Structure formats: C-alpha cells, structure tokens
Amino acid sequence: MIIISCVDDNMGMMFNHRRQSQDRVLRESILESAKDSKLWMNHYSAKQFSENNAPQINVDDNFMSEAGDGEYCFVEDCDVVPYLRWVEKIILYRWNRRYPSDQTFPIGLSAGGWKLIHTEEFAGSSHGKITEEIYTR
Amino acid sequence: MKKTVRALLPLFLVIGLVLSACAAGNTYSLDSIPDYSGSSYVAVNDNQPYFSDTDLTTTSLESYSNLDGLGRCGVAYACVSTDTMPTEERGSIGQIKPTGWHTVKYDCVDGKYLYNRCHLIGYQLTAENANEQNLLTGTRYLNVDGMLPFENMVADYIKETDNHVLYRVTPIFDGDNLVASGVLMEAESVEDKGEGTCFCVFCYNVQPGVTIDYTTGESTLAESYTPAAEGVG
Description:
Structural class of chain A: alpha/beta
Shape of chain B: globular
Structural class of chain B: alpha+beta
Number of strands of chain A: 10
Distance between the termini of chain B: 35 Å
Largest sheet of chain A: 7 strands, mixed
Low-confidence stretches of chain A: none
Mean pLDDT of chain A: 96
Strand order of the largest sheet of chain A: 5-4-6-1-7-10-9
Distance between the termini of chain A: 12 Å
Mean pLDDT of chain B: 88
Number of strands of chain B: 10
Strand order of the largest sheet of chain B: 1-8-7-6-3-2
Largest sheet of chain B: 6 strands, antiparallel
Radius of gyration of chain A: 14 Å
Number of helices of chain B: 4
Oligomer: heterodimer
C-alpha cells in the first residue's frame, strides 16, 4: 500500500481529535495521484472529500486491512504502524507551518531506512507552500 | 469591513464582558493548572472551550477589556473570520509597554529578547496593531512555542473554509502580579459546531533557562538550566 499523510513542522497530524489543517488544492492533488488506482480512507477523512466526485475513493474504517499492493491509503487519525510491513511507499505533504499536535506521524523515516526520491512544492488554496515528499524503502 | 465591526463594538463589548466573567472567574482557576513541566501548553476542561451554544454566531466581532487598576490587560474575545483578518502588513507596536515590561536579553532565548509584546488575539486573526488592550508581556517561548501554533491553526482553518471561529484569550495573573502566569486560549469553529477546530488550552508564560519574578517582570538566568532539557510545544 501507499500511505498518504499530511504533517506540520513537528510531524504532527492531529490535535484534539481533529486534523491540523486541510486544503482544497491538496485534495485535488491526492485524487490526481490515485486516479488510476484505489484511494482508501475512513469515514472521518471521507467527509473532507464529500464535494469531490471521485470514483477512486473507497471508504472503510478498517481500510488499511483492505488495501492491496499499489493502492493508496489516506491516513489522518489512525495508526499505520501495525501495517508497516505492507507499506511500499509514503507520500508526505508538509504544511510548512507549526500547529499544535497530540498525534504525530509514527514512522521514523531516516531511522527506518526510507529514501526520499522526490520533492515538489506547490501553492495550496490556503497554504502558501505545501511540500510533497515521496519516500520508498 | 473592519470599520463595520468597530461600529458594533460597544454592543459586543457588553456581551464579551459577561463571557469573560464566565471564563476567567466562575469556571476557571490557576489552581487547577499543573506546574510547567516541559510542554508549552496543557489542555484544560478536556480541551473543550467554555462557550455556550448561544455564543455561537456568524457575526464577526472583536472586544477587548479595559485595562484594570494595575494597568493590566484582560479578556480578548472575537468571532474571527476573513472580515477581521489583516489586509495589510503589520504595523509597529514598540511604543506599547504592557505591565511588567523589561527589555532584557539572554543568549539562551531565541532572538535573545526574553519578552515579546504578545498579542492576545494574534495579528493574523484580527489585525490589531498597537492596541494596549490586546498586548501582554509574554516570553518568547509563550509567543512562538505556546500561542503561535494555535493562531496558525485557526487562521488557516478560516482561510480554507471561509467559516467563523469563536475565539477568546484570557490572561491569567496571580494576585497583583504584573506579569501573567499564562493565557487561556479557547476556540470553536461556528458553522460546523467545533468539528473543524476546537480547543481549550493554557499556555505557560515561562522561558526555559530563565527565572522570572512575576510580581515585577524582573528576571535572572536559571542556575539549573540545561538546553537539552528544554521542551517545545
């Protein structure tokens, strides 16, 4: 599976059971990345995409157990660690901002031997600079 | 648009004063806050703000308390939206000296200066510049590690959704101290009833490595300071 997550400068993802931030342009970018595959997510994340008519989205609260090889998983509020052995690639979107967080991205990228193979910056709808990073084993 | 908001200020001030009594007096006490232990903030009231359902409004507003008898600022309250956010670069605030103000530098402080003029409601939310009712003597740590991440989260939520956020910052002074022990920050997004953003936290007005006399604002380098032990929020 291919993990997609959004993080702030401290690798934070959530605070008080809510995502730190969101961005319409970023959502479109995620949908574009997964247009020829399946994009799995839970009901919490699916609400964020409710205005997008996106046939690639599959909603299941146990979605990381369901995702197959090469399929995308948008991870916001759930723990990816139990599924780490099946993760082929990580796409990380950095907000380039500092937010409060009480849930952080749990995968140690450098310690875990992940290699950064691609970096790209783009302007979001409400974020001046979002950085996309792609990691492989 | 901001002028419209200001025209309605007297009405909202009355509302805000009632709310401030609720937040700062009846339901909130410094006694319930644990001592600083490495995190720039601590969640209060299970991270749920003290707003009531009737407070939730989609009318943009701002209110700031009159300075008290010691010259200290009080509750700042706003319904923040794109209407209240800045449309121009921030102006100078250096002429304001909030209670307990000292211009003092330490090598262990980011940017050297111990104290910042901290906006109670950040400039990026309500575009207030040299408003003495909205400025507090706060440590660099309070300003950057404590309050700013919360302001960023609220500002970016509003910019993305065009929704409103009810927002209140209450400086907490212990007795007649001139420097606040910290600030209570509360926020709740209005249109989605807190689903988008919602928090209630106390941010500590401390600076790792520096000992502060909160009665006057005087300070000394802490004897036991080790940079490795410094916590960040």
